[in-house]
Give the backbone structure.
Amino acid sequence: MDSSPSISIGTPRKRDTEMQRYTLTEYRDASPATREVYDDFMRATGATEVPVWLKSLGHSAALTRAYWERAKGTLFSGSLPLPLKEMIVFVVSAKHGARYCSACHAQNVLSLDKTLEFQDLQCVVKSDTAKDLPAYYQAVVNFAIKVVEDANGLTDEDFEELMDEGFGKEEICEVIAVIDLASMFNVYTSSLRLDLDPHYRAIL
Amino acid sequence: MALESQRAEYLTQQLVRYEALFALLDDIQTLDDIEAIARCIAMRWKYFANVTNWRLATPNSSGFQVIDGFRGEARIADVPALSLWDEHHWKLRLPRLIRAADPWEGPAPPEHLTGKAITEIEVLPFARMGRCIGVLSVAARHQPFSELDNKFIRIFGGHFADRVSDILLRRQATEALVDKATRDALTGLLNRGAIIDRLGSQLELSNRYGKPLSIILADIDFFKIINDSHGHLAGDEVLRAVSRRLRAQTFSGDSLGRYGGEEFLFVLYPCGAEAVVKAAERFRHAIAESPIAIDGDAPKNLQVTISLGASSTSGQEDVRIEALLKQADDALYRSKASGRNRVTASNDRAVEYGGGAG
């Protein structure tokens, strides 16, 4: 068993003047309660490593669990398909300029939806003419962008538009919960200026 | 190269759609409730074809079941007859593509399959063993249906119609079996086993909630003489007519059963000792008030009466079914012994009425 200190420091950033704002708790150093959450994350997502965002919370088992349960309950249950949810998280994160989340979820979108390529997501970010998305897909993306811009400005027509594209009220509620989840993670990861996991590619 | 990349794009699109299709097929095979199946489909069809607004009409035991899907939700209605749109396509039994831009002189489509964004409606009838099991109408929004849309609509539409039709057929078969096992074939009332089962369950409720329960045994007076003098067909007719009149007097048709040859059992819950005598008198009067018309070679009117015996439990004591039935049977015997066409409660002497014995 490794007897190194229970908390390790994240990889230094390129610019020396920038402060390292977080600490990472590696699996081997984590408390049993935190480990339990790490295990649950890996079981649910099929990942073989714990990502930086989760390790940055590992110092507190309660916070680790709270953030993970929120993500799990929103992304891995309900009636919207996971690729669509990942797309919502990606769009919201890109709109918020959240470097970590947008890279992580771009990766997830591409692995789940094989009809999309990295350039397609770049077009979505730049609001260029994106690939022809199905009408329901485009409607959800437009809705998410509106919520990020001004949640109070949402109109009944915005809801009507989604309903016309075949979304029931419960599904729209789920769309909003995913937008909200993304926003919460955006604030967390951007404030701490989290470094990307090694296998992610920055899109912003 | 361009062709190759188009082909690759087509295959990937197909793969993504298949994933969504299989997930939905899995769910609709597992679910047994048409409402839950329709809800799933209303939400998830859009993920593998350009379908958000649709209708499926399927025959059921009393006419047709029509399921409408739109705005992510599904509505189910049982209707005695199809709308003009569905009937038109039901009779035609041919796939049709109706484009919004082209003139259409047939019946108007359902409201949710029309509108500015709708570009075309595809109608698909599904037949199995020469029998039409359903007509599906799906509307394309924004874009007309693509080749892949069509392919997935046909694959899924067939499964959907089969699943709904299977569930409806199984439900009908189960209902018919239950009916056969619990109904008396001649009168349509509950049979002896079923009415005693009902008495058992009602008695449990009476004990649990401490509310009174009463039963009435009723027997047609001089039924043997009716049979001997007018024949068994006339006897059957009398049994049917008495059953009809008695059933019309009960608040729930299922609280009455044919207990024996010409004997009927009522289970009344909640109902106390005083109310049961009034109810029994109502039943007696319903039979005695007018003669029963017998059709056949020599039509005739027969004056028929019944004798009744009632027993009750307050719900505060532990009474067994056998004891309650014995008390009612004893009371019925007393009604017969004291002149027939009368009501006796288990603790009373026979109450005489001026209807005259039949």
Notes: The first strand of chain B starts at residue 53 and ends at 60. Confidence is low (pLDDT under 50) at residues 349-358 of chain B.
